Every structure is written in C-alpha cells, then in structure tokens.
C-alpha cells in the first residue's frame, strides 16, 4: 500500500465526516422546534438508517482508527484520493444545499411538519431526493479514499439499503400529502441522478 496516499485519503474522509456533522447540527436543532403533524416511522426505516450509519460512518471509522480488516487492503493511489476528495466535496455541497433548501421542512425520518411545503427549487429542481444524492456521492468517495474492500464499499452498501427500504415510502407519503402537485413534480424530475434516474 502507498502509505502516504492512504493516510491522506483517511484524513480527507475524517474531515468530510466532521464537515457532515457541522452541516447537519444546526438544522437538526432547528427542526426539533417545528411540530410534527404526521410520523411514518417503520422498522424498515430504522434498519435503513442503521445501515447507512454503519456503512458511511461506523465501519469506515473503525477501519481508519484500527486498520482492521487489514487483509482487505489494496494499494492506495494519489489519483484515487484526488477523485475521492472531489466526490466528497461535491457530496457536502449537495448536502448543505439540500438542508438549506428544506429549511424547517427537514427531518431525519419520514415526517410531515407543521405547514410543510413541497420544495421544488435549488437541488430539488433537478432531483426529488438530493439528500440521497449526497449519500451516494459520499459512498462513492469512500471507495476512492479508503483503500480497503470492506471499509471502502461499506458506504455504497449502506446507502443502497437505506435507499431501497425508504425511497418508495417517502414518495408515497409525499403523494398522500401533496397529491397532483407531487405527481407533476415527479413527472419532470428524476429521483437521485439528474436526467438519468
């Protein structure tokens, strides 16, 4: 393994996770002050959130802290760290813009807040679920930043579990609340990748 590239990649990953926490914290605090009028929490949603947390934070964090599982390491390259850094920066940019655009509507779980609005501007003008887009970009960046088959792939696996278990429920909830307005929005946007999916 190219030790210096591996160390830089791990450092970028740690800084990215710190940035993620800094971005999320004030929105999470503000959201607690807005009453929730409808909760759609399910067991499968809890599993999805746990999988995303494990894949995007716990497994890679354990690897960065301990180097385990060392047997799954592969050679780190500076070009991969550069790509991973660009992807993580893009993920944090989308993550921040998404939180900012949602404002008081933001929630970590499937909830409808008092005076909830359908947001169709900013990143929501391109995709219906830009928060998932940011998680996908984080997972991809992890592959390039952490030269380990387990830690590197854990983010994409965690994201996929969350996405599969939750996105259909989220869209059903939005259709129930916003009806034809959300149907029209669905017709002109993709789910998480602009112009593709």
From TrEMBL:
It comes from Rhizobium indigoferae. One of its GO terms (biological process) is methylation. Keywords: Membrane, Methyltransferase, Transferase, Transmembrane, Transmembrane helix. It is a multi-pass membrane protein. PANTHER family: PROTEIN-S ISOPRENYLCYSTEINE O-METHYLTRANSFERASE, PROTEIN-S-ISOPRENYLCYSTEINE O-METHYLTRANSFERASE. This is Protein-S-isoprenylcysteine O-methyltransferase. GO terms for molecular function: protein C-terminal S-isoprenylcysteine carboxyl O-methyltransferase activity. The chain crosses the membrane at residues 6-25, 46-64, 76-95, 116-140, 146-165. It is found in: Membrane. Signal peptide: none annotated. It is an enzyme of class 2 (transferase). Its EC number is 2.1.1.100. It comes from the Bacteria. Gene3D superfamilies: 1.20.120.1630.
């Amino acid at each position: 393994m190219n030790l210096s590239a591996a160390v830089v990649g791990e450092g970028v990953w740690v800084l990215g996770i710190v940035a993620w926490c800094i971005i999320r914290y004030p929105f999470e605090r503000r959201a607690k002050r807005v009453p929730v009028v409808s909760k759609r929490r399910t067991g499968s949603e809890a599993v999805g959130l746990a999988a995303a947390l494990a894949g995007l934070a716990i497994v890679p964090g354990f690897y960065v802290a301990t180097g385990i599982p060392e047997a799954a390491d592969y050679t780190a390259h500076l070009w991969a760290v550069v790509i991973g850094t660009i992807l993580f920066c893009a993920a944090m940019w989308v993550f921040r813009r998404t939180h900012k655009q949602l404002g008081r509507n933001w929630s970590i779980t499937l909830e409808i807040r008092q005076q909830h609005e359908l947001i169709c501007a900013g990143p929501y003008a391109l995709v219906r679920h830009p928060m998932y887009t940011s998680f996908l970009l984080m997972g991809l960046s992890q592959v390039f930043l952490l030269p380990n088959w387990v830690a590197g792939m854990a983010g994409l696996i965690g994201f996929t579990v969350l996405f599969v278990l939750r996105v259909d429920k989220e869209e059903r909830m939005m259709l129930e609340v916003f009806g034809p307005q959300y149907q029209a929005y669905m017709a002109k946007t993709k789910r998480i990748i602009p112009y593709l999916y």
